[in-house]
Design a protein that fits this description.
Layout (H helix, E strand, L loop, with lengths): L1 H12 L5 H6 L3 E2 L5 E2 L15 E2 L14 H10 L1 H10 L33 H7 L6 H16 L8 H24 L6 H22 L7 H17 L18 E2 L2 E9 L8 E9 L4 H12 L10 E2 L3 E4 L10 E2 L4 E2 L5 E2 L8 E2 L22 E4 L13 E4 L19 E7 L12 E9 L4 E2 L9
Antiparallel strand pairs: 1-2, 2-3, 4-17, 5-6, 5-16, 6-15, 7-8, 8-14, 9-10, 11-12, 13-14, 13-15
Helix pairs in contact: 1-3, 1-4, 3-4, 6-7, 6-9, 7-8, 8-9
Length: 457
């Protein structure tokens, strides 16, 4: 419904869009009206043709005119175009000519979906995405996460609220330690108890450090403690929580999580030579997609491959040389594909093969949303939901105003991980930069049905 509304509104309003707004949206100007998208469509795996939106008004030539159905087709082919078309529909600010758009929902019906600021931190999103239900540890986590907003106050004024949050986290932990301990998975009990001791000591140490009124210690210690909280929560996951559908059960599957290191050789950038990024793949919520990717990583499929798209919206790679637009499995001689795979909050297993829009789940919230800078997802053909193979992209934005279920990507593409360290370096990558290597740091033992081990298959 959201995309359809954008399409309908775009047909009526695109002709009136101003040249300045087209330029601000990242499009190449063509005369006084009209623009051509420079982006390779996320939806087209291996698509090399630019998609275009041309607007006609007044005395524009016949060649520049666009029929409504042509606009619709252009918008349907490119998710970026839909986003820009939506942006074009927002009124210009009457008070600031240098600001391209007003900060507000593009479509009126979206306002009912926005209930609060989205979580933009990749590590926090991963913590909330774990298949656990322990309110006690989540309250400790929430208290520590609130420190981020509290530190937006300048000077020492921020330290009072920070100290209160740390004291609250310590109090909640002490009061509910037995409940937290009881929820540790039996097989991870000993490991979990050790991590709980680290958390207890860390919270006491944090309170003592804050007595110095030194702002510089706040974020490093917060990050350390939230990492420990994440380890506690991981120790609560007893086993993989659901059965994979039979049609996908023999594919490479990541039944858990894995941490990867991606090293990229950056060309023609005096400030960055090598970009080393840490990626966490989430197989709890996208086991088929994450399993496919880590299996390709172990095959060294991406090693030596260039970045193939970098346009300020996404960084994308994974299109191999030759006519194939994905990974050709030597065992079959055919492109190996994975289905669209979307986990919705409150559901016990992912939805396969259909977008949330197609299912009429307009208000559903995805467990792995496109909220964080460096969100990692599988590219696919726009009109074939199950055509993902090897092409992946990383989002170069944070969700400032539109939480999960209120943007054009959630529920339409499979998110299966996040860049959790050095994600800001993604913005420095250009087409032609080379992926030197991607290696698995930990979690490879969570991969089942690894095809890379079966001879040359």
């Amino acid at each position: 419904m959201v995309v359809a509304t954008v399409l309908q509104s775009a047909q009526a309003s695109l002709a009136a869009a101003s040249t300045s707004r087209l330029g601000a949206a990242g499009f190449r100007k063509e005369g006084s009206l009209g623009a051509q998208c420079r982006h390779r469509s996320i939806g087209v795996v291996g698509g090399h043709r630019p998609c275009s939106i041309r607007a006609a008004a007044g005395t524009c030539s016949k060649d520049d005119q666009v029929l409504p159905n042509a606009v619709t087709k252009a918008l349907q082919k490119c998710a970026t175009c839909v986003a820009v078309a939506a942006a074009l529909l927002m009124p210009l600010s009457a008070t600031a000519a240098d600001v391209a758009f007003e900060r507000g929902p593009v479509i009126p019906e979206l306002s009912v979906l926005i209930s609060g600021p989205p979580i933009k931190d990749a590590n926090a999103l991963l913590r909330y995405a774990l298949p656990i239900n322990n309110k006690a540890i989540k309250e400790v986590q929430k208290s520590l996460e609130e420190i981020t907003d509290e530190m937006k106050v300048p000077g020492e004024k921020a330290l009072g609220p920070v100290e209160r949050s740390v004291r609250q986290a310590a109090r909640l932990f002490t009061q509910n330690k037995a409940q937290i301990l009881a929820d540790l998975a039996p097989a991870k009990k000993q490991e979990g108890e050790q991590v709980l001791n680290l958390l207890s000591d860390g919270l006491q140490d944090y309170q003592k450090q804050l007595e110095s009124k030194d702002r510089s210690i706040v974020f490093p210690k917060q990050k350390e403690l939230l990492r420990i909280v994440g380890d506690v929560e991981e120790a609560m996951v007893d086993k993989f929580p659901y059965e994979i559908p039979e049609e996908f059960a023999n594919k490479p599957l990541l039944k858990g999580r894995a941490t990867l290191e991606m090293k990229i050789n950056v060309k023609d950038n005096p400030n960055v030579k090598d970009a080393i990024l840490q990626i966490v793949l989430d197989g709890y919520n996208a086991p088929v997609t994450a399993g496919n990717f880590i299996d390709l990583v172990e095959r060294k499929f991406y090693d030596g491959m260039e970045i193939q798209r970098s346009d300020g919206f996404v960084v994308q790679t994974g299109d191999p040389e030759g006519p194939a637009e994905g990974f050709v499995d030597p065992a079959t001689g055919k492109v190996r594909t994975v289905p669209l795979e979307i986990m919705v909050d409150g559901e016990k297993e992912p939805i396969y093969g259909a977008t949330l829009e197609e299912l009429g789940k307009y208000k559903a919230t995805t467990t792995l949303p496109f909220n964080a800078f460096g969100t990692m997802a599988m590219a696919r053909e726009e009109f074939d939901n199950d055509s993902g193979s090897s092409q992946v992209f990383w989002l170069l934005k944070e969700s400032e105003l539109t939480p999960s279920s209120a943007n054009i990507l959630d529920g339409r593409y499979t998110v299966f991980g996040y860049v959790t360290e050095n994600e800001e370096l993604l913005a420095d990558l250009k087409v032609g930069d080379v992926i030197e290597s991607i290696r698995v740091v930990n979690g490879l033992d969570n991969l089942v049905n690894p095809s890379y081990k079966v001879g040359a298959a």
